Amino acid sequence: MDYQSAHDLPSFVEMKRQLQGLRALSLFSRKQRATVKTLEQQIKGLGDTVDHYYEALGPRNWIFHDTLPVDDITVLLSEHADAEEVEAGLIALYNNHDNLRRMITPLNQLPAMRKRMALVHKAQDDYFSEKYYACIHVLLSVMDGFVNEFETVRRGLHAREAEELRAWDSVVGHHMGLTNAHKTFTKGKSTTNEEPVFELYRNGIVHGSILNYDNAVVATKAWNRLFAVTDWARARIKEQQPPPEKTSWKEVFAQIAENDKRMRANEAWQPSTWRPGEDDFAEHPARELADEFLTAWVAKNYGRMTQAISTEVRQPHGNAMPRLVRIEYEGFDLKSYEVTAIDHTAPAVCLIGVVLRFGDGSQQTVNLRWLYEDADGQPIASSLPGVWRLRNWGPMAFMNATA
User: Fold this and answer.
1) I need a surface site. Which of 195, 199, 200, 289 has the fewest CB within 10 A?
2) From which domain of life does this come (predicted)?
């Protein structure tokens, strides 16, 4: 059955069970007890955010998927009580180049979707060019083809019953999630309709009976449904795998200690800025890596550029990443550059201000967003062991952003 609340997901239930067990132990220091309490609050906050999202947007057939930026969603829900305003804010999140790129990147992990990434990127270009009609049709075909190939039962998404889309231990498995929204996907629309529509009526759109669907709402719902469907696929894979081994108390304590260390580093962090001529400007590690990246861009050394990019971005592409970098950058003939600013805006985030000068005589001032990562590629405070990596790696991502 679908989950009535995000708090009912097996992973949520297990995390709460472990934390309750830890609180019952008398071995804790005061600081460790505070850390456990913080973790409990974080788990509760995440579950509440998912439930509040579905309360506001579930009736409008928006699905919460794993790659949505949770912090942004939490702020959006806290600032707006009106569902239309929340919907507008959600569409704006998708319409951010960095956000959508982060949502798209994990699709490469699924073989049946990896084959269709060229079409996904075309849909991305159409979306930002406001060619919504084209974006919608491409994404509908990608979803149908992906679902048809994903399982041995060869039927596309449009041929599936809602019951077949129940997702085990996934936020898309909420009772207001994928199974609820699927009714609009398969709803028959045989009579020609020229009125504006704002739902993803797949059958009516594909078969030409719904004519006025060329808008940002339907296009964004197509992206939303694509990501929800891939979450469903991952949930199916996870459901068929053997259950993980129980975590030992020793491992739990080690994780709590690590979380505590990271929390203290975040609390001790202070924002800071550097400008040319100031102490530490030239030797700042993020600035040095930016120099290496930009020098490689001037030399068209795409392999070396790849090394500077965030681990989370690179890993799904493997050896194909230098080719993707070349495709993104070969149309931009960078001749020279000047680093003008270093701004630490968060414990793991540093913005490097750069003036880019191109072969056609034009120039543009941009911010390169560098993320400080641990050995697993996860963000971590820059006072701890780690390395700076470029997050907004594609030229259009930072050239279209406000410097």
Assistant:
1) 195
2) Bacteria
